[in-house]
Specification:
The structure holds 2 protein chains of 2 kinds.
Chain A (H helix, E strand, L loop, with lengths): L2 H13 L19 H15 L20 H15 L1
Chain B lengths: L3 E10 L5 H10 L5 E2 L12 E2 L7 H4 L2 H4 L4 H17 L5 H6 L1 E5 L5 H13 L9 H5 L3 H10 L6 E3 L5 H14 L5 E8 L4 H8 L24 E9 H6 L6 E10 L9 H15 L6 E5 L6 H15 L7 E3 L2 H4 L6 H15 L1 E2 L22 E2 L4 E7 L4 E8 L2
Helix pairs in contact in B: 4-8, 12-13
Classes of the chains: A mainly alpha, B alpha/beta.
Chain lengths: ~80, ~400
């Protein structure tokens, strides 16, 4: 499974949607993922890819980990895997 | 209804091992937060906290006591002794039979759980010390205070996360006010600064890696502390009759629950608790000079709390002072309201308002007088102490100068 497929599976589970309803362009907000759901998604991503994601719920926008869309999350994961792998 | 006064106070926290040292540190805007010193700290992503330093349980407590006293109990007993010594009360006869202990803690003996799980899971041992259960139970601290000081009346432990000690003190106040008890020992304690305790908090992603900066626009989360605050709540006529020194009066309280979200705060729930405490005390909102804020330093709490204050106090919100001493001693979780009550006593009795330190940038969503960085002299006759917990459970106390 590609990084994109894995991320879509994680996000879909969190949003209680079918993976086919989640696209790379989807934002977490439009999928209905709230702040707790976001923290849980990041935990699931860390577990799935064995990486450590720098993320503080107090200022999500300031983090290097871009959560603005599914595609940006995939990019950020690929970068962290390269750095931390 | 009886009047209720505070005749004794005791504490141990990152700012000091007793009340005078703690108040001096608050006056000076001292920061008690620093690098954590604990086993496996290098495996934590959060490595700062308001740790109690230089507290040697050995020497204070004997070997038999040490096998029964978790760190949260050790803190509680030290603070209770200071409070009861100051009050000058000796519990015997009818006074002992009716007076009890109500304390708050969120986690109880967290380091006892941590040490013993490590022993059986990591070290592979198959046996733990016989007193693990009585050492870690949440009511251990209250029980040992009752045994140490011969308190035979109603005693129990309250656990409502970050509001535990405010709920406990509210309950103790209600018991003295109703005439059920002539005196109650109350407050709370917490000791979660061990590997498992900090690791659990890390998971929530709300902790700051560098500092607790309540109400500052660049705040980035809470910082854990540890310690205890314990008080003697005494019926006014009882205290007067024996010529006790009165630190301040407790005049009202309210509790509310948000019934909304397990972690996100609610403006409405907080506002109802503050307004309820004023109504219970029969106090007009413009009499309130100081609020000791819950002020955790998270993005969500601080703006919600300021909005709630604006709702409750209207134009008077711009005149009152509100500070968060968590910036200095960290967030003592279940013990936090108890240590923070000391700042209210200092405001009422000494006319000194503890500052919010670490304040760097104004936040338009927290546009109140948060007493930034430096303590201030001011005459205050009424103070509120706020606590708003995870789980949406809130408790606010109202105190008055005597």
């Amino acid at each position: 499974m590609s990084t994109m497929d894995q991320v879509i599976a994680i996000i879909a589970e969190q949003a209680i949607l079918d993976p086919s309803d989640v696209s790379p362009e989807s934002t977490l907000e439009e999928l209905g993922i709230d702040s707790l759901g976001l923290v849980e998604s990041i935990f699931a991503i860390e577990e799935a890819f064995d990486i450590s994601v720098p993320f503080n719920a107090n200022n999500p926008g300031d983090s290097d980990f871009d959560i603005s869309s599914v595609a940006s999350i995939v990019q950020a994961i690929d970068r962290l895997r390269a750095e931390q792998g | 209804m009886k009047r209720v006064v505070i005749t004794g106070a005791g504490t141990i926290n990152a700012l000091g091992h007793d009340v005078p040292t703690t108040l001096e540190a608050m006056r000076n805007g001292t920061c008690g937060i620093g690098p954590l010193e604990l086993r496996d700290v290098e495996r934590l992503s959060i490595q700062i906290g308001g740790q109690v330093r230089g507290f040697e349980a050995e020497g204070r407590y004997n070997r038999q006591q040490m096998t029964l006293y978790d760190r949260f109990t050790q803190f509680t007993l030290a603070a209770a002794k200071e409070a009861i010594d100051q009050a000058g009360l000796v519990f015997s006869g009818d006074l002992a039979a009716k007076s009890g202990v109500v304390l708050g803690t969120a986690g109880g003996g967290v380091s006892t759980w941590d040490d013993n799980y490590r022993s059986v899971y990591e070290d592979g041992k198959n046996r733990v010390h016989p007193f693990v259960v009585p050492k870690l139970m949440n009511n251990a601290a209250a029980s040992h205070v009752s045994m140490e000081h011969n308190l035979k009346g109603p005693s129990f432990t309250v656990s409502t996360a970050c509001a535990s000690s405010n709920h406990a003190m509210a309950q103790a106040f209600a018991m003295v006010r109703s005439g059920m008890a002539p005196a109650m020992i109350t407050g709370g304690s917490e000791s979660m600064l061990c590997f498992g305790g900090v690791k659990a908090w890390e998971g929530l992603r709300v902790m700051s890696r560098d500092a607790c900066r309540p109400f500052s626009a660049n705040r980035n989360g809470m910082v854990q502390g540890e310690g205890a605050g314990v008080f003697v709540f005494e019926e006014y006529a009882h205290a007067k009759a024996r010529g006790a020194e009165i630190l301040c009066e407790v005049v009202g309280y309210a509790m509310s629950s948000d019934a909304a979200d397990i972690v996100m705060p609610s403006k409405n729930g907080a506002a109802r608790a503050m307004a309820g405490a004023l109504a219970d005390a029969g106090i007009n909102r413009d009499e309130v000079g100081y609020i000791n804020a819950h002020g955790t330093g998270t993005a969500a709490n601080d703006k919600t709390e300021c909005a709630a204050v604006a709702d409750v106090f209207g134009p008077h919100a711009d005149k009152l002072m509100m500070s968060s001493t968590k910036s200095m001693h960290g967030h003592l979780i279940g013990g936090t309201g108890a240590v923070e009550l000391l700042a209210c006593i200092m405001a009422l009795r000494d006319g000194v308002i503890a500052p919010t330190i670490g304040y760097e940038e104004p936040d338009p969503e927290c546009a109140l007088d948060v007493v930034p960085n430096e303590a201030r002299e001011a005459k205050v006759t009424v103070a509120l102490s706020n606590a708003f917990a995870f789980g949406g459970m809130n408790a606010v106390l109202a105190l008055k100068k005597v």
